[in-house]
Amino acid sequence: MPTLCKYEECTGCQACIQACKHQALRPIQNQHGFIHPYVDEKACIECGLCEIICPILNSVWVKNKLEPRTLAAWHKDMEVRWKSSSGGAFSALADYVLEQRGVVFGAAVTTKCKIKHIGITQRMELDALRRSKYVQSDIGKSYIEAKKFLQDGRLVLFSGTPCQIAGLYAFLRNHQYDNLYTVDFICHGVPSPFVFEEYIKRMETKYGSDIVNINFRDKRNGVEANLLIVFNTLKSGVRIERFKDNSFYHGFISSVFLRDSCYKCQYATMPRYADITLADYRNIGNKKKFEHEKERPLGFTGVMVNNEHGEVLIQNSEIQYEERYFAELASSQPHLKVPISKPSCSDDFFECLKNEGYDKAAKRFLPMSIKKRIEIGARMLLGVKFFYALGKLVRILTGKRSLFIE
Ligand SMILES: Cc1cc2nc3c(=O)[nH]c(=O)nc-3n(C[C@H](O)[C@H](O)[C@H](O)COP(=O)(O)OP(=O)(O)OC[C@H]3O[C@@H](n4cnc5c(N)ncnc54)[C@H](O)[C@@H]3O)c2cc1C
Asked: Which residue, judged by its Cα, is nearest atom 12 of ligand 1?
């Protein structure tokens, strides 16, 4: 029997499952809905490939830059920025690859609100990949599909969490394909698909209708604290929830129901595996003013160009940007250095969810703190600019690095 990585360290990248030529490994969901490999002893011939492939068992030395060139970036088309989580940099990079008849892989909301990785070849399909989905996406067979496209000489842009990108390189046995570009993002951690499923059921009961799509980051009321979660329902039209009232989002930012491996993430560090790393460029710009301040209200994507290959993609695409500096982005991004900590209530939350259902568990473990409510209220009342000016003043007066949590 193969010795796979420790259960709590497995990221669910499924590189081992996709690499197995004997279908001896299958994806199974644990009680929190996270996928783990299951070994079918009868089918396994003990070739050991899964052990060689696993990116956790075989960490690779990454040559990428420790302090990469850093940009505040945005898409030239305002419509696309409205539809993106941050500045739409991902779409600008994807546009180029699709124009070259390439293939773009990323996470999409599929039937029954399942989050899965898919590959697209047409620009009209790109909207499905846009925006953050705050649930672990099922990578399925996308490494196998990406490899086929690469071997056929097609350009491939593969986007995903840092662990999914590490899984892809491991699956490709670290073979360097000139026609492969990879994009990850600075990652807070991935929430449980089971909790998400329970949350969706709760919202379906509330609206009296099936939910067919969800936008985790709708900007119609503005970015930051004013973000909305929007549901497309079958019978009850479009329904909107404010972030601040939303238990699932609150559970995500307070890290209550993330995958176990996220709390020990090996990839919350520099250098990165991907050619390009994306992030929210928020709460910064105090020391060096933005030349393109007028672009700020719709959001910037922070872009780290981790190697020369990533540089080529930036140069070829029509991404709009201004130069910033790595230390600035890093100052607001703890997960470039350390993984998120596991809250002490996490196990109790899952126990309560199992025994008493989503509503009770959410009420007991996911209420928003008074501090967070004050912060959100202040942002809405003062507007983003004044809010940061106030934050700066408080920092100067108190000597604290930051008054507010992110
Ligand atoms: C779970 C999660 C945690 C995040 N944590 C942070 C953080 O701590 N700090 C930070 O600065 N930014 C974080 N982000 C990233 C950020 O929200 C934006 O994705 C990033 O700024 C890019 O924005 P954009 O407008 O350029 O592109 P967008 O159009 O928003 O592009 C989204 C890209 O992310 C991919 N994606 C979306 N959801 C998932 C998913 N569940 N799994 C894998 N890939 C996915 C899509 O395939 C697409 O490539 C997180 C995103 C997710 C999904």
From this structure: 279
Rounded to the nearest angstrom, the distance between the alpha carbon of 132 and the centre of ligand 1 is: 4
Q: Right CATH number for 7-53 from 3.30.70.20, 3.30.930.10, 3.40.50.720, 3.40.50.970?
A: 3.30.70.20
Residue (of 111, 355, 115, 133) closest to 248 by Cα position: 133
CA-proximal residue: ligand 1, atom 42 (nearest) = 137
Q: How far away, in angstroms, is 307 Cα from ligand 1 center?
A: 20
pLDDT one-digit tens code per residue, 280-336: 987 676 678 889 988 888 889 999 999 999 999 999 999 999 999 999 999 989 999
What's the rounded mean pLDDT across residues 342-353?
97
Q: What is the rounded CA–CA span in Å between residue 106 and residue 93?
A: 12
Instruction: Specify the ligand 1 atom closest to the Cα of 159.
Output: 49
CA distance 187 to 32: 20
In ligand 1, the atom with minimum distance to the C-alpha of 115 is: 41
Instruction: Provide the residue type at 297 as one letter.
Output: P
Distance (Å) from CA 131 to ligand 1 centroid: 6
Domain with CATH 3.30.70.20 in the chain: 7-53
Atom of ligand 1 nearest to the CA of 191: 1
pLDDT band at 399 (very low <50, low <70, confident <90, very high): low
Measured between alpha carbons, how far is residue 270 from residues 45, 65, 76, 342 in Å? 37, 8, 29, 21
End-to-end CA distance of the chain: 44
The rounded Å distance from CA 106 to ligand 1 centre is 10
Q: Tokens 């609100």 label which residue?
A: 113
